[in-house]
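Sorry to interrupt, but I need a hand with the structure work. Go ahead and set the record down below:
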Amino acid sequence: MSIIPTSETISVEEAITKGHKMVNLPAIAIMVLTTVLCIVLAVMNIIPGWGIGVGILVSFVLAWLYWSVMITKWRLWAFENVRNVHELKKRAIQEKLIWPNKHFFEKTEIRSAAQQAKWESLQHRFSQADFNAFPPMGIHQQ
């Protein structure tokens, strides 16, 4: 296995961007559209006014369910295709794509047995240091 990334790996930035497009943006859209739909239906007197509150609760549950399924798919894809898994994990937490290890909300991710086995098989990648093509400034080899 080569230390130098091949053309088959993607950058951390590309993975984060795909995560937002694949996971967060659709989850937000689910929440907004479900809420708007409930408001419109209440204004048209198709559902009672309290239906808006129920709709907001339902929108949250649907969005969380979507996130719980899709974050697993993104996580497996990203950690399999990005060379710098430590940087990816740090950035994904900062960007609110995933939660830190052992966080309560991390436990809400939905994984099949096959997905869990694949995630466990990717854990060895965390024993390798990230590849840094550009060493820190001021460090010179002699």
